[in-house]
Amino acid sequence: MQRLEFIEIDIEYCSLNHGVLPCGATGSSPCFNTKSTCQARTSFKAQSVTLRFAVGASYLQSSGIEVTAPCVESVSYSAGEVSIGENLGRRASLSVTMSDFLWSDTGLGFDKYHAQRDYNPYDQGTFWGKFSARQRYLRGRPMRWIQGQVGQSIDAMEVRHFIIDNFNGPTLDGRFNITAKDVLKLADDARVKVPIASRGYLLSDINATQTTFTIGPTGAGNLEYPESGHINIGGKEICTFTRSGDVFTVERGVEGSVNVAHKSQDRVQVCQVYDGIDPADIIRDLLVSYAKITTEYIPIDDWRVETATFLRRRYFRIIAEPMGVSKAISELIQQAGLMVWWDENTKLIRLKVIRAIDTDARVYDDMNTLKGSFKQTEKPDTRLSQVMTYYGKRSPLERDTEPTSYHSLQMDVNLEEETNYGSDIIKTLHASWIPAFGRPVAKRINEILLGRFVNPPREFQFRTFRGVDTIPPMAGDGYLVSSRILQDATGAPDLVPVQVTKVVPKAEGFDVSALEMRFLDFSEDDLNDRTITIDGDVYNFNWRQAYDRLYPPPKPEDEIICIINEGAKVGSQIFGRAAFIVGDWPSDIPLKLFIRGRIQGRGGNGGNGAGNDGHATHGQAGGTAFYTRRPVMIEQSNQIWGGGGGGGSGTWKYGGGGGGGQGFSAGLGGTGQGDGAAGTPERPGAGNGGGNDGAYGGAAGQPGKHGLGNSWSNGGAAGAAIDGFSFLTFTNGQGDVRGPRIN
Description:
Elements: E1 3-14, E2 46-55, E3 69-78, E4 93-99, H1 127-134, E5 142-149, E6 158-168, E7 175-181, E8 193-194, E9 201-202, E10 212-216, H2 220-224, E11 228-233, E12 237-244, E13 247-251, E14 268-270, E15 272-277, H3 279-290, H4 300-310, E16 315-319, E17 323-324, H5 325-336, E18 338-343, E19 348-353, E20 363-364, E21 375-377, E22 386-393, E23 406-413, H6 415-421, E24 426-431, H7 439-453, E25 459-465, E26 478-481, E27 496-505, E28 509-516, H8 524-527, E29 530-534, E30 538-539, E31 541-542, H9 543-548, E32 560-564, E33 569-571, E34 580-581, E35 591-595, E36 598-600, E37 626-627, E38 632-636, E39 639-641, E40 722-723, E41 728-730, E42 736-738, E43 741-742
Parallel strand pairs: 2-3, 20-26, 22-24, 29-32, 30-33, 31-34, 32-35, 33-36, 34-37, 35-38, 36-39, 37-40, 38-41, 39-42, 40-43
Antiparallel strand pairs: 1-2, 1-5, 3-4, 4-7, 5-6, 6-7, 8-17, 9-10, 10-13, 11-12, 11-14, 12-13, 15-16, 18-19, 21-25, 22-23, 25-28, 26-27, 27-28
Helix pairs in contact: 3-4, 3-5
């Protein structure tokens, strides 16, 4: 067999002629039509030119394939490795050493003006010496390793695609080396961060309530900041903002952060927000917007079909500080159960959801593998018996790796296998991509991990043949393997599902590495689960907003469920906003709610007693507990309590403060000659006495009741238990409903 081997490099080359418009160069000595030598960079018009180099062979010329030079001395290849549900894997690497030689400097990609030079190209310099001076910006340029045989066209040969990482030479012994990597090298943490670091800073101090400020340096706003979004001030507070030039208008202390004062020169960092986004689109954005990987490498439609078919989940994260792009993607891969890798054969980045191997997948057995090449290796260190996933990050500013940074924990254990193996092995995930209420999402990744590793998977190696009718194995794809050493407990042959992690091309075949892939597969019911579970106390819950951060757009056949577990309370911290808001849903979407805990409106603040100025205030109204304008089926109802109204103040002068209404959050007691008591979720606050003959403030209202007043001031109105009562259907009784029901 007459083997052929080529290296192709795509260089940038200007299509213009020196000094001829639109080229703006005016120098007397022409350039070499490369960026490094360009005399008018704004005029540079790049075209791609392919240089092809070959391994020398006596039969090369008879192949009919044109080459720049047969100067390739050696090609060293290190195969990439696909990581299954952990990270972006290991990068493929190609190192090519070529010999230096004299060159005429003619042809496309070389010196257009060689006839105008005052030297003979053969007498001055060498090919790679001139090349390295002219092509300084090779990093990231396409490079291909092509293997075939005489009789094949270039298009019919086996091609592997890379990008140039670095080059060195020529050396004194006349050698030039180029190292190339796979495209995902562009996402390395050392090369690119998300978000990009912002240069802006506060021009002056701001207090904890100020809502406008100006940043420096002048002009940074328009250059580096979007018109609206999220910012991180000094690493201490997250704000949403709108902007006009360098002037910011902000809502303070959002996303779990707290309003604090800041000093002049505190940095103002843009946050990257992914709010309820398909992981396919998140990864594409990170690779394209930050790593600057061209979209031609990303088959986004295929990615979306994959996630829509086998995942059906959305993810949420606010990245408040610059972090490595590879790290951000790897964490999402782990928390969503994905594989992402560079397919060097098809020149595409591939994405796959971890799942069972098809039972009709191609089989590798003794008939199509090299005799004696099959090996299996036990991997006992990969065994797991428990998985703990922390999720629902309290604030984007909290440390990702601290359990205290998260609201919730999903823990899954295989007790039977712990007993069988005689020990427990625990894996802990800090799921910064899984938002609050994402228990089903966290449980899914736990089940994937336990399913794969409760019995440690084996690693297999084998060699396949090359041939006209042989389909080469592909890294990342799933297959079945069979061998006489693979047996079940009865000694019968065992057909083992595997995922190929590495393929190394050889002259006679392919060396394959694969991991065993036995685990629980997910049914359609699992994939269509649209449940949101509230396990602990939350405020101002919006069902649709929480849903959109976890799941794709709802369909009529979906069963949308929200469960408020026993002991959990849903309340309100914002006056005038209901504790539980159903939100805006399509009219044909069925909604089911299980209330095993409590929904409770905010308590009204007590009225303030008057001082010398004689100005007293009325008690504040209690807040609404439950608000809807969409039909909801309430399958189970426990407690729905409107907020109690705040108590009125005492008399017109020297009166005591009214009590705070019972609620969650509870109303504050009014101030006066004697301050009223604050309410709690379980009881209303009492009014207090005044001074110098001032009267007591009124007592606050219990859940769903108005506060008490007097002749001088009124108690606050009762908060509604339900606003939108006519939209509700109770299947098992209304339970403990306190407060007005508004249709």
